[in-house]
Amino acid sequence: MSIVRGKHRGFVRPEESARREQLEVKWSRTFGNDRPNMDLRWQFPDRWARFHVRGPGATASDLEAFENLRALLRDLPEKRGEPMRLIVEEYGINDLSGGWSKALPTDLFAWRRIPRDEYRAGTAYYWAGTIHDRNVIEAVLVKAALEEGYFVLTDAEVSWAFCPFWYGVDIIFGSSRERDEFVDAHRDLSPPDCTDL
């Protein structure tokens, strides 16, 4: 993994636009005020499932991991022909592990800015974008498999959240029923220590 991913990004205020307002409304409807990152699994444990894309002992190649991520994403419900949404969390110039938004091959706009509080050391910046091209979605998934990008993918209606990382993906569904049905169909990628998911 390269630690040089380009300049960290921040902004003074979110973009004033219909696309920002639309994403805000749809995100809030499904996930409330919770931040779009991997911490969603703690906020919605009854709707969360984890899948390991590198198999037992994390021995699968980057290509195999990408293919498993792609297969899981394709099996999530979405309306054909509609774009996907991408959200990236940044923490500005003081965050040594940031820069993910610059590493991803897509155009992003300033969506949310959350000032630091007692739980976070710095201001959180959320960049968002809409992806129409399946090739770009696949390029983004490759970045996750290579540990060169952390982000949240969701459908146009923001009905679920797909949060990939190096050896797996956390998915937060719209309901526990949807979660259970999806897990049953993908037991081969469920972690052995998460038998209740």
Which helices and strands appear, and what pairs or packs with what?
Blueprint: H1 18-31, H2 40-43, E1 48-52, H3 62-75, E2 84-90, H4 100-103, E3 109-114, E4 124-131, H5 134-145, E5 152-155, E6 161-165, E7 168-172, H6 176-185
Antiparallel strand pairs: 1-7, 2-4, 2-5, 3-4, 6-7
Helix pairs in contact: 3-5
Shape: globular
How many DSSP H or I helices? 6
Classify the beta-strand content into a percent band.
15-25%
The domain count comes to: 1
Mean pLDDT: 85
Structure explained in plain terms:
Strands 3-4-2-5 form a four-stranded antiparallel sheet. A three-stranded antiparallel sheet has the order 1-7-6. Helix 3 crosses helix 5. Strand 6 and strand 7 (about 170) form a beta hairpin. The chain has one domain. It contains six helices and seven strands, in the order ααβαβαββαβββα. It is α+β, with helices and mostly antiparallel strands and about 200 residues long. It has helices at about 20-30, 40-45, 60-75, 100-105, 135-145, 175-185, and strands at about 50, 85-90, 110-115, 125-130, 150-155, 160-165, 170. The two termini are about 30 Å apart.
Task: Write out key terms for the chains shown.
197 residues; alpha+beta; four-stranded antiparallel sheet; 29% helix; globular; disordered N terminus
Summed up, what is this model?
Helices cover about 30% and strands about 20% of the residues.
